[in-house]
Every structure is written in structure tokens, then in C-alpha cells.
Design goal:
single chain; 8 helices; globular
Length: about 230
């Protein structure tokens, strides 16, 4: 990659990152996501690249990929509810702001609407942006050495966390931490998106499902408040 090409790639990465972070902190994440999609698609089109270049390549085995995503999603979401979120909330002395999905509580119709959004939009599009585009472009710039991958992983996770600023300070840290895990899965998958897409989808499915039935607060009380 030439120096001029590398500079253009870095500028696009920084523009997309800034757009996602600013709109997330201003509680307008949808605008950032839409803007990022437009920029990324235009950039890929200008280069003559297909979506496969950022990881949208079919996995070797769909069934195993979905099954692994289910298991990883369940484990990560349970760890998030009983360990990551409560620990960060204690450190930050502030609650993780889940108000954006409060309407799912006791309302199965709203829950189903969120499931459609998660599986049609959130999991695919967010992973396509944060892991697919950002991490793949960073790998193209920095290489795939150990130090480069660590920098790549941290950068994409910081952007992921900050762009969820509408969830409050604790939400930023919790989401950023989960971003590290998702980024690690993406690297493990050799920069193929489908395992991390299914993992993300099941994380949100279990997470929103627990909030809908009050299971998140129940689990936190069972683990944390019994010890206090």
C-alpha cells in the first residue's frame, strides 16, 4: 500500500470512528450508523471491492457457526449480567442505562420488534462496521502481527464503547469490554464475520429477553446482594 493510499484509508477510518462516537455520545446512534454505512459502501464501491473484503464470506459450516454463536452469546451475556456490568457499575458508581429498551419489560410485542431489529439490523450492520470494516482496514494498514492486532482490537473496542455513549459511563465501559471479546472472536475466525454476527445477535437476544422478564435484576441480586 502506497503512502497516499494509506493516508486515505486512515482518514476514512478516523471519519467513520468520529461520526460513530459523536452521534453515540449525543444519543443519536442511528444517525452515526447510517452515515457510517454510506461512507463505507461508497469507499468500497470506489475501490471496486465487494462486501466479502470486510468479512461477509460464507462460513465453512453454517450449522456449527450458528451453534457456536449461540453458546458464545449465552456465555458472554451471562458474564455481562452477573459480572461485567455489576463490577463496572460499582467502580463507576453509576447504573448501566438500558432505558432505550425499557419498553420490552412485560411486553412481548415490543420484544418481538426488538428481535427483528437485532437480527435484521443490529447484529449484521454493527459487526459489519465495527469488526468488519474498522478491524479489517486497520489490519490492512498495520498488518497482522501480535502488537498490530492488539492495537487493532483496542482501537475498535474503544470506538465501539464510546459510540454506545447513550448507555451512560458504565455502558460505555461494559460495551467496550464486550467489544474486546467480539473483536477477539473476529480475529479467531480469521476475519470472517459470521461467527461474531451470530454471537452478537444471541448476546442481544438473551440480554433483551432477560430485561423483558426482569431476569437481569434477579441474577444481579442473587450474585451480588447476597454477599453484602
Amino acid at each position: 500500500m502506497s503512502i497516499s493510499s494509506a493516508i486515505i484509508h486512515m482518514v476514512i477510518i478516523l471519519v467513520v470512528s468520529a461520526l460513530l462516537i459523536i452521534t453515540g455520545l449525543k444519543k443519536q446512534p442511528g444517525i452515526g450508523i447510517l452515515g457510517a454505512i454510506i461512507i463505507i459502501l461508497l469507499f468500497l464501491w470506489a475501490r471496486g471491492d465487494r462486501l466479502s473484503i470486510i468479512g461477509f464470506t460464507p462460513p465453512q459450516n453454517w450449522f456449527i457457526t450458528i451453534l457456536m454463536g449461540l453458546g458464545l452469546g449465552l456465555i458472554i451475556q451471562l458474564l455481562s449480567v452477573i459480572l461485567i456490568e455489576p463490577f463496572i457499575e460499582k467502580i463507576m458508581n453509576s447504573k448501566h442505562d438500558h432505558s432505550v429498551i425499557d419498553a420490552v419489560k412485560g411486553n412481548w410485542k415490543v420484544f418481538l420488534q426488538w428481535m427483528l431489529m437485532v437480527w435484521i439490523l443490529v447484529a449484521v450492520i454493527e459487526e459489519g462496521i465495527y469488526r468488519g470494516y474498522l478491524m479489517t482496514e486497520m489490519k490492512n494498514l498495520l498488518g497482522a502481527g501480535s502488537i498490530a492486532l492488539v492495537i487493532n482490537l483496542l482501537y475498535s473496542s474503544i470506538v465501539f464503547g464510546l459510540s454506545h455513549g447513550y448507555q451512560g459511563p458504565s455502558g460505555i465501559l461494559s460495551t467496550g469490554f464486550v467489544g474486546v471479546i467480539l473483536g477477539g472472536i473476529f480475529i479467531f475466525s480469521e476475519f470472517n464475520l459470521w461467527l461474531v454476527i451470530f454471537t452478537h445477535g444471541f448476546i442481544d437476544t438473551f440480554g433483551i429477553g432477560l430485561i423483558a422478564i426482569g431476569g437481569d435484576e434477579y441474577l444481579k441480586k442473587q450474585i451480588w446482594f447476597k454477599r453484602s
